[in-house]
Amino acid sequence: MRLREIEQYILDLFITKDNEHFYEESGITVRGTENIKRIGYCTNLTLDTIEESRKNNINLMITHHDAWEFIYGLKEACKEKLLEYNISHYFNHLPLDDCDFGTNNSLIKKLGLETIERTHEEDGFFCGRIAEFKEEITFEELAKKLENILEEPVQSWKFKDERIKRIGLVCGGGGFTTDVREAVRRNCDVYITGEKVLYTIEYAKFAGINLIVGSHTFTEVFGVESLAMKIKDKYKDIEIVRLKEEHLEAVRNSI
Fold this sequence. Notes:
Elements: H1 2-12, E1 26-30, E2 38-42, H2 47-55, E3 60-63, H3 74-85, E4 88-92, H4 94-98, H5 103-111, E5 114-122, E6 125-137, H6 139-150, E7 155-157, E8 164-170, H7 177-185, E9 190-193, H8 198-207, E10 210-213, H9 216-234, E11 239-242
Parallel strand pairs: 2-3, 2-11, 3-4, 8-9, 9-10
Antiparallel strand pairs: 1-4, 5-6, 6-8, 7-10
């Protein structure tokens, strides 16, 4: 019954488990095998990541996102494929954004920042952070540092000339103008997220805040990694594998 043990262990890691939305935003979606020896982790549940799991002899997939229902038919196709391969699946979305070892704090740690404040509340979960560098850096240095961490190009817009000290961050889908406004209100020098639209850029320019946008997938993967490593610390005999995901969101040159 190792799967149920792991499920309970994960639950005990989260202080938000009493939130009424916790079980909507996390949990086992498919119970394949209960005998867990190899765990594979990534951001997204897709047919491609399931295939990566099969290739790596994974027993349990851990992802940040469940298959999105608005990618019509994907959830049903993923469930069918997981059952065919006898692979179990667990996801953790907003609670992982909120927690101290989750998506935002994991990227903050890699950037060398110190968390100042939890922000961007949704359904009782705080999905963003305000953080600061001990010493100021240039905007260009920050953008390059993020590219090196994510292993992909980022998009950046410099709308003020000062050096960077204070950062607003929402890993993943923080591309709404309301998200940027929280960073503006807290006097951040730059706002970092994983998605944008035209209005994101226009508002950042109007408000005079620098903007850096990586990808939804790779700004969030380190939180899933942190969760997987906590399981590894508890269950020493379990192997952990990072599953390959394509950089679909990366800016590409035109043909």
